[in-house]
Amino acid sequence: MAEPTERRNFYGRVHGKTLRASQKDYLANDLESLRLQGVAPSENPERTPLDLAAVFETPRPVWVEVGFGGGEHLVHMAARYPQVGLIGCEPFVNGIAMLLGKIRAAGVTNLAIHPGDARDLFDVLPPASVDKVFLNYPDPWPKARHHRRRFVTPGYLALLARVMKPGAEFRVATDIPDYVRQTLEELPKASFVLDRQTGVGEAWEDWISTRYEQKALREGRAPHYLTFHRAA
Ligand SMILES: C[S@@+](CC[C@H](N)C(=O)[O-])C[C@H]1O[C@@H](n2cnc3c(N)ncnc32)[C@H](O)[C@@H]1O
Predict the structure, then answer these.
(1) In the β-sheet with 62-66, what is the strand arrangement from edge to edge?
(2) Does residue 178 have an active-site annotation?
(3) Which residue's alpha carbon is nearest to atom 22 within ligand 1?
(4) Could you report the average pLDDT of every consecutive run of 10 residues in the chain (232 residues)?
(5) Which residues line ligand 1 (CB under 6 A)?
(6) Are 87 and 160 within 8 A, CB to CB?
(7) Candidates 117, 120, 123, 139; catalytic one
């Protein structure tokens, strides 16, 4: 059973180092028009489901990226798949500002942003409305007592499973072997079926390496790529 919205804790960072003037400009001028309305509980206390057909100009498949970091993968996917509507969630303001800079540079228009916790987005997405989900390098929470904060835990996964279409793909990339273990343990319990598990040099054909992956590689940690689908 999902936790009630008001009891949720978010343990990650929301602010980082001082933003550059250009980044403040992106946040002040670009975020509002790209931000999904009616996701934050304060804006939609009734948790009325979003009308996705009204979010993107034409009806289209919807893909979601959880924790887009600096936004390189999200913008890459938006440019590569202009017929898809992508929604990125990320509470870290510096990451959102980086994404906005990349959106301006790439000129992509098939993107919407939820600048907050993915769980708030899942609450208001209609059931079985999402065609693909990306979880790239989720926060590892290495200490055993913090493993329950990981994304691949029942509370997050129940919310995610509800909004994914039967057969929809769920991709997980991580550099943490114990995260692979927990993912393989928890996802089948939450209605996901493993299709593929690969390693270094064997990412998805349309993958672009993210900032976090580059850091992991520099520090000698190997990527793991896991592909699941939502059971029918
Ligand atoms: C280790 S970083 C990886 C960022 C990026 N995906 C990459 O590969 O470079 C994990 C990101 O997930 C975000 N995150 C953590 N919990 C989240 C949540 N509940 N909803 C959305 N994003 C979340 C964090 O703010 C952080 O930016």
Answers:
(1) 111-114, 85-89, 62-66, 130-136, 164-174, 224-230, 192-198
(2) no
(3) 67
(4) 60 84 93 96 95 89 98 98 98 96 96 97 97 98 93 97 98 98 98 97 97 97 98 95
(5) 12, 66-70, 89-92, 95, 117-119, 136-139, 210-213
(6) no
(7) 139
